[in-house]
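TL;DR need structure tokens for one chain.
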Amino acid sequence: MADAPLVTILIPNYNYGRYLDECLSSAVGQTYERLQVIFIDNSSSDDSYEIALRYRARYGDRILVYRNDENLGGSRNCDKASRLMSADSEFHIYLSSDDAFHPTLVSRCMELMTRFPEVGFVLTHREDVDEAGRVQPSLPFYNVDCVVPRVGQMEVFMMAGIGVSTQCFRRRAAELRGHVPDYRFDVAGDWYSNFCLATAGDMGYLKDPLCRYRTHAANVTSGAVRDLTNVLEHYLLIHAFSAIATQQELPTVSARLPMAVAKLGAMCLRYASQLLHAGDPGGARRYLDLAPALKPDLVRDPAWRALRGCLGLGPESCLEKLQEIELKSPQGRLVAYDPPAGSVLL
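>> reply
TL;DR here they are.
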């Protein structure tokens, strides 16, 4: 194992001490041996740093622990974590401090990346877990382990992000990712990062849920949903993708822009439904007004009309109507997809 590549797990943290035992145990307990964990606390006010020091005392150099004197903000703390990696580390993985890894995650990713040196990054399916520890089952994005060619995956990313909580990066691909514009997206930052990584190499995908992703109640109706930030940022995101594809002379990617805009219009119905469930008809109305601007034929869609009909109803009648609508037009993804043409099935 001495000649195996060094892999670094980067764990930025702020005030997630209540989840750290599960997180840190999952990191240091990986079956992959040539591993280093870097934990960097962003000046937490809870016992996060003390918990991490206990792991340092127990596991020695397998985990390095740092603490900022002042809060740097999430993005700068992540950037600092990456700068603390050893120059010998060819691969790295970010782990959110409220999440956890399956013991074989690193080994599985490294098996794939060693076998396919053209793969720049690997995504794995995740297991969603709520704040009380209850598992919320979900379908993987692809229905098989696979390696997806970079252009094929860029075409997919034009239409959809892949809900993951982590990525395993090849350092070379992460550095090449810097050759695309450094746009900043608050809501869709991971999606943009994954698209940029796909410009630098093929993508590996593992369909088993190898990480536990913590969902928080506030996520469902967050400020970004209520004030349309998520949709407006999504609109800017797909136009950025199209611009990058045009610059790289990838017409099959940029040609998907009109379809991506229309799909975003249809997604507005999902957000309208969420806000009606949350008792915010004003927010739902904004999505229903915006939807036809992105996809004009939605004004003839029965689901759009039915949701508009909910706006004037009382709370109980509205929820009953929503149940009827969602039975006819289910929200969310119902299948795991076949990988794009040209993918290698594993």
